[in-house]
Amino acid sequence: MAKIILLFLMLIVGQSFAQSKQVQDRITQVENNLIPYVPVKGFKGWNLIDRMKYYKVPGLSIAVIKDYKIDWVKGYGMADTLKNMPVTPETMFSAGSISKLLMAVTALKMVDSQQIDLDKPINTYLTSWKIADNDFTQKKPITLRMLLSHSAGTSQTSYFGFTPAEPLPSITQILSGAKISQTRAVVVNSEPANEFRYSGGGSMIAQLALMDISKKSFSDLTQEILFDKLGMKNSTFEQPVPKKFSNQCSWAYSSASWFKGMPYVYPQQAAAGLYSTPTDLAKLFIDIQKSYLGKGTVLSQAIAKEMLTPQVNVSDGGYKEQMGIGPFLIQRTDNNDPKGVFFEFTGVNAGFLAYGMASVEGGNGVIIMLNSGDNQNGIGKEIRRSVAKVYNWTNFLPTEIQPVNLPDIELDKLVGRYRMSTDEVLYLRKEKNYLVENINNSFDIYCFPVSKDSIIFSDFNIKGFFVRNEKDEVIGLQNIYQKKPMPKMKDDEFSPSEYLSMQKYDEAKKAFAAMNMNEGQITYLAYDLMNKKPLHLKAIKTILDVALEQHPNSSMVHSRWGDYYLKINNKASAIKSYQRALELDPNDQQLKENLTTLAK
């Protein structure tokens, strides 16, 4: 008997080791198969750590779903670079708009329990605030179904959060547009149930309805309906985040000029207030998948199927995107397999990005959370594509490109600078046996030859064609959406911004002056330069000189001059510039605040 037990234990250990090795093999494959939007035959995938460095992402965390279970979870990089705190599976990130999906699941659970109806006017449930009546609402009252499918015609697309020191508004102040909310009131300003129109404001209306019905705070309600039932121990809607989670929360990072260098607070809970981990969110996504099969914990099969039924079209193209009652639904336009339909939500908050995607059928999915708020089409989507490739998701990736190998002499002819507009240049350089596109020093886009004179841009699967003259010289490049080719620039031909980067300021000034930009365009350019590192003061002054010459009576121009003088520590000139700007626009509150601060 003892021998039989020992043999049985050895068998279990052996199976566990084999399973563990299989999982580790899948992790390694995912980490080394990050790919562009369009898969390319023979193209070696990028390494995850290398791409984190490329995109300047300090830290991220991944949870992969396979066969309705979490297959693996892993953290990469740093949650806090100053504290030298690594990302772990327990690291919590700001989930941004994924909050809306959890609010929708909470609402649908209350529909299941007959506390609220999807199709009755939402104003009948609201007691502490009401949607203002107007011509739109009188013809078609707003319902919960409309709010959850972003078809209610409500205002306020997104919310931008608060720094920790700022006072926080209540939900009714947010909806009413009180001064403390720093946003306008949420109203219905287009025809309801007519089209998709993304609205964080609509999500806040739904949140308040759930609170008014339950007589509970939103954080307590979601704790009871979602987090406790699904074992989501590292998730909260409380804002600010409770102290008990403070050691688990990642810091926030972004290169955006407006970013204050710290995690923001989002009192707009249903729209953007969730903090969570990929593990916890994977539990939710799995439960939605299981509910669709009638085996879920939170939702009934009937309501889960309704949740994942398209309500309104969002966009068409290579992929068909629709809105369910809560999640986005996406599939390749040519897909005919039920396992090729996916539900998803993406979250973007100050210094954070998050992606959640799972198949409606088949039990696949991935959650990715980053502590970088830059480049929504970057590493997160590359990881998602890698998971889809390694786990063989049904009809998710576009059809693979079959590139051709051109001789170096032919590739060299295609290399160069192509003028897209007066100050927009497309650069093509050669790398290995393909080309890399870069527009005005943005992120690289990989391009693969499919014939002597045509390439595929792998970011959106767009074909480009090269134009040659009678001497067989390449003189232009045109993609299928352009009416005319982009001319190839000569070696002594430069754009205004190129002159600026070359520190040829006189030439840059003439070139920018010839563009005749309006006051908004040119002051934005100056603002952008003032918030870039390293700081090039002569470049900023060059732009502002042009702005002042062409728009001498612009409040925006004088305001930017004030900002410039502060950069060079010339307080007296800054005050004069702000005063002149205020004379031209007496209602500018920011100018008044600037002058008050400088007067101290």
From TrEMBL:
SMART domains, per database record: TPR (SM00028)
A Pfam family this chain is assigned to: TPR_2
This protein's UniProt keywords: Hydrolase, Repeat, Signal, TPR repeat
Beta-lactamase-related domain ranges (all copies): 50-376
TPR repeats (start-end): 555-588
Signal peptide start-end: 1-18
GO molecular function: hydrolase activity
Gene3D superfamilies in the cross-refs: DD-peptidase/beta-lactamase superfamily (3.40.710.10), Tetratricopeptide repeat domain (1.25.40.10)
Protein name: Serine hydrolase
Species of origin: Flectobacillus roseus
